[in-house]
């Protein structure tokens, strides 16, 4: 899975947001606010990755347990699915 083309993460002040560009801006209006973990996961989605690879990366980067990391990733991916940003 990966993020669809036409969506870029930008830093706005202290926040990170995902915004549509080009043709994507015609079908998606708005932006997606990301926290630090969301920005980390978004960067992993710049290329093809699996949920398991995302989980391994989270466990290597953050002081968290497998169950909490997995829940966070599932919630993040569900939000991307709901907004149509995720390509599977």
Describe the structure.
This protein is of the alpha+beta class and 88 residues long. It has a single domain (2-87), classed as Arc Repressor Mutant, subunit A (Orthogonal Bundle). Helix content is 48%, strand content 22%. The chain has 4 helices and 5 strands. The protein has helices spanning 24-27, 36-44, 51-61, 66-83, and strands at residues 2-3, 7-12, 15-20, 32-34, 86-87. Strand 2 (7-12) and strand 3 (15-20) form a beta hairpin.
State the gist of this model.
With 88 residues, the chain is of the alpha+beta class. The protein is built from 4 helices and 5 strands; from the N terminus they run βββαβαααβ.
Which key terms come to mind for this protein?
single chain; 88 residues; alpha+beta; Arc Repressor Mutant, subunit A; three-stranded antiparallel beta sheet; 4 helices; 5 strands; 48% helix; globular
Mean pLDDT: 95
Order of helices and strands: EEEHEHHHE
Known CATH architecture: Orthogonal Bundle
In the sheet with the most strands, the strands line up as: 2-3-4
What structural category characterises the helix and strand content? alpha+beta
Alpha carbon gyration radius: 13 Å
Number of domains: 1
What proportion strand? 15-25%
Any chance you could write out the topology, listing elements then pairs?
Blueprint: E1 2-3, E2 7-12, E3 15-20, H1 24-27, E4 32-34, H2 36-44, H3 51-61, H4 66-83, E5 86-87
């Amino acid at each position: 899975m990966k993020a669809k083309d036409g969506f870029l993460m930008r830093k706005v002040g202290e926040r990170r947001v995902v915004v549509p560009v080009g043709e994507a801006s015609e079908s998606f209006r708005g932006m997606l606010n990301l926290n630090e973990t969301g920005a980390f996961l978004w960067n992993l989605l710049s290329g093809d990755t699996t949920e398991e690879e995302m989980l391994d990366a989270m466990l290597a980067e953050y002081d968290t347990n497998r169950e909490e990391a997995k829940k966070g990733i599932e919630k993040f991916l569900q939000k991307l699915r709901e907004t149509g940003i995720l390509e599977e």
